[in-house]
Design brief:
This protein is α+β, with helices and mostly antiparallel strands. Among the domains are: 89-234, no CATH class; 292-350, Ribbon (Laminin); 366-490, 2-Layer Sandwich (Phosphorylase Kinase, domain 1); 691-741, no CATH class. The protein contains 18 helices and 39 strands. Strands 26-30-31-29-28-27 form a six-stranded mixed beta sheet, sandwiched between helices. α12 (595-611) runs antiparallel to α15.
Length: 748
């Protein structure tokens, strides 16, 4: 009986071994597989025919060209393959999108480009989205693990203004690619009349390219037509984790002896790698071969080296001692015990003297180095420039707390990723918690960018002149670190943009709250324009720069792009800066920055509050992509109700919504002279807020009682915009009466 059980167990083990062996052999390529196509090597798991690849996603089609040479393509598509690496990278060739124009500035030759991969992801670390041209807006949309869309803008007036090798928006611009993108489409459009630059820039170009293979040159304005560029893809096996794939042994790819499995860093799946001390193809059974470290260059002393699987040993000949390495102690003759004692004693005394002397020198040098490093960071972070800007006025950053680098590091838990509140082109904002449990927001600019340091100094320079309850408060700064840091009060509920465009949040944002937020934001901007010692133009008013606290009180933030306006000037000539969808068209075309530029941007925010739509969206039809244009057209054609957010409309407030919509329309006038001032906008919105709170709100304004009251003698009253305001907004009784009875057309 026992003998029969033992034989049965051995039979089961033999059967299991045969199954595993069969599965392993099934996953391996045939011996007659071709491993190259033209000049491109095709290592397994890739292959050119059935039985030569791991699965169909690794199929490479090898086609003959007209010249008779062979050329590889990814799967059965038309994507040329340039190189395949076992490190998980695949280089392919991609076309360049172009848009060419005639003498009238009208596009006559326009193409799109892109890749549709479904399996392999576009590398987010090796590629950059790039646009070339002096009048180009390049847009890219992609999908995969998540959908995304972005773009970049490049402008210039002459070929002399561009700088070869520089791709920062003058003739060339670039944007990063996120992880998880498996396909993308690139499209181009123009902002201005292209005919003015046609002589040196007849066409615009857009493409995704391997970053270190492309360097911009002014000759690219004409030389990129019908060319291709390399794009790096990240490939991986399957979509399982290493653990799940190993359990499913029939499809597990890391079957080589001395191989390891690791997860893909871009999308799902896993990759294989030979263990330390081995090299080769980890996807083949015998693919990982031992590295003979004892071959040239020999790492050991006098060729005394012993190689073994996965490593090597160095040894010394008989009569010698040491580690046998060329670097280090090498091999030394053995000495007697007495000599060892004397030598050890001399060495100990010498080391003690050396230790005491070197310690004294070390602490002195360290202290001096620390002082110099702090001075270097202070100057590098614009401390001298900041002192110069603040020396001629009473406001000073010293009125706020100067935080040490250790305090900031502890507050952010050593800049832990879980503390990141937001990230933009100029830096990262962290959530910080001080020892007294006070929550703060810390803005950290990016390393090595002089423009961002100037933005940092400008933001301090602006915020030290502002004292308003609806402007985010600057608590202090830190200049001891490699990059400058700003410390703000922490605003709990995030941005207005999140609350408008997130369906789960927009439902709790009632019309009363939206009107209050609009009035508070307008009041803050009016304060910047007319109540500070030196007028301030924000220059980047948008829903994402308006924060909300627990009481839905608006806080205007991000003054990095703001400008101080000398009292004897009404406009500034500046490089155009702002956000598409919110940018004043007159400022964009003339580079003349005025307070009315903020009014236009605020009009877009007001339209967002009324409609719940994004300022710029490529998911909408082309005629409706720009919210400002769509909104003005709807108000003009009496179609306002069709675009209003459903959750804010009711029978009792439709007239008020039309009033606010007309105000937004006036703010969105193309000509700045036709727009109201920010102070006028704030007064009108404050009047709406008062009417919203007043017991008359739910009664008709045309009753006999109302007419009697509105005909009463004029009395003045004022609305306090907050204890922190530098001024209050006064609204006369007659002014309020006129606002209630104004018509809904442009005769406001």
């Amino acid at each position: 009986m026992a003998l029969r059980e033992m034989l049965l167990q051995q039979l089961l083990l033999l059967l299991l071994g045969l199954i595993i062996l069969a599965a392993t052999e099934a996953s391996q390529p045939n011996s007659n597989c071709e491993r190259s196509c033209g000049s491109v090597s095709i290592p397994y798991p890739f292959g050119t025919k059935e039985g030569c690849y791991h699965d169909e996603s690794f199929l490479i089609t090898c086609n003959k060209t007209k010249s008779g040479t062979s050329k590889p393509f990814l799967r059965r598509g038309n994507i040329p393959v340039l190189n395949i690496s076992l490190d998980g990278e695949l280089r392919v060739s991609s076309a360049i999108a172009h848009a060419c124009y005639n003498d009238s500035g009208i596009p006559v030759n326009k193409t799109k480009t892109g890749l549709s991969l479904t399996k392999f992801a576009v590398s987010s670390t090796k590629n950059k989205f790039t646009a070339v041209g002096c009048d180009v807006v390049a847009l890219i949309r992609g999908s995969g693990e998540r959908d995304y869309g972005t773009g970049c803008l490049s402008l210039c007036r002459s070929v002399d203004s561009v700088e070869s090798g520089s791709c920062v928006g003058i003739g060339c611009c670039q944007s990063p690619i996120p992880t998880g993108v498996t396909d993308f489409t690139v499209a181009l459009t123009s902002l201005n009349n292209h005919s003015t630059i046609l002589d040196f820039n007849p066409c615009n170009f857009g493409f995704v390219v391997e970053e270190n293979t492309y360097s911009f040159s002014a000759s690219d304005f004409k030389n990129l037509m019908n060319k291709t560029v390399p794009v790096v893809l990240d490939w991986a096996v399957g979509n399982e984790t290493c653990e799940d794939a190993e359990r499913n042994s029939t499809s597990y790819a890391c079957i080589a002896k001395n191989s390891t499995c690791y997860a893909s860093n871009n999308g799902g799946g896993y990759r294989c790698n030979c263990s330390s001390g081995f090299e080769g193809n980890p996807y083949l059974v015998d693919g990982c071969k031992d590295i003979d470290e004892c071959q040239n260059p020999n790492p050991c002393y006098k060729e005394l080296c012993h190689n073994f699987d996965g490593g090597f040993n160095c040894y010394c000949p008989k009569g010698y001692e040491g580690d046998g390495m060329k670097n280090g102690t090498s091999c030394k003759l053995l000495v007697t015990q007495s000599k060892i004692t004397i030598i050890a004693l001399c060495i100990s005394v010498g080391l003690l003297v050396l230790f005491v002397g070197s310690s004294w020198m070390y602490w002195g040098l360290k202290k001096r180095k620390l002082i110099k490093l702090r001075e270097k960071f202070f100057q590098q972070n614009g401390g001298l420039l900041l002192q110069q800007k603040l020396s001629n006025r009473k406001g000073s950053v010293e009125a706020s707390k100067i935080y040490s680098a250790d305090e900031i590091k502890k507050a952010t838990n050593n800049y832990d990723e879980s503390r990141v509140l937001g990230q933009g082109g100029y830096g990262i904002v962290y959530k910080g918690i001080l020892p007294d449990n006070k929550v703060i927001a810390i803005k950290k600019s990016k390393i090595g960018n002089q423009i961002q340091i100037e933005q940092f100094i400008n933001e301090i320079n602006v915020l030290t002149q502002i004292n308003h309850r609806n402007v985010v408060k600057l608590l202090g700064c830190c200049l001891e670190t490699e990059v400058p840091l700003l410390v703000y009060e922490f605003i709990t509920k995030g941005t207005l943009s999140d609350h408008i465009h997130d369906k789960s949040l927009s439902s709790i944002l009632s019309w009363e709250k939206r009107l209050k937020i609009a009035a508070e934001t307008a009041g803050a901007l009016a304060y910047l324009h007319s109540a500070t010692s030196v007028p301030i133009i924000h220059r980047d008013v948008k829903a994402a720069n308006i924060l909300l606290d627990d009481n839905f009180t608006a806080k205007v933030s991000d003054f990095g792009a703001s400008r101080l306006v000398p009292l004897d000037q009404t406009q500034l000539n500046t490089l155009v800066q702002g956000t598409f969808g919110y940018l004043d068209p007159e400022y964009f075309h003339t580079s003349q920055l005025t307070e009315k530029s903020d009014v236009y941007s605020f009009g877009v925010v007001l339209a967002e509050l009324l409609t719940g739509k994004m300022a710029l969206s490529f998911d909408r039809p082309e005629i409706d992509r720009n919210l400002a244009m769509c909104f003005v057209s709807a108000v003009k054609d009496d179609r306002l109700v069709q675009i209003l957010e459903d959750s804010i409309v009711n029978e009792g407030n439709i007239e008020e919504l039309k009033e606010v919509a007309n105000l937004a329309k006036r703010c969105l006038k193309v000509t700045s002279e036709d727009r109201p001032s920010m102070k006028e906008v704030a007064m009108e919105l404050e009047g709406f807020v008062i009417m919203e709170k007043h017991p008359w709100r739910n009664t008709s304004v045309y009753t006999e009682e109302t007419e009697f009251l509105l005909g009463a003698p004029t009395q003045s009253f004022s609305v306090d915009v907050g204890p922190s305001s530098a001024s209050s907004t006064g609204i006369g009784y007659d002014s309020m009466r006129n606002e209630v009875l104004k018509p809904l057309d442009d005769g406001r």
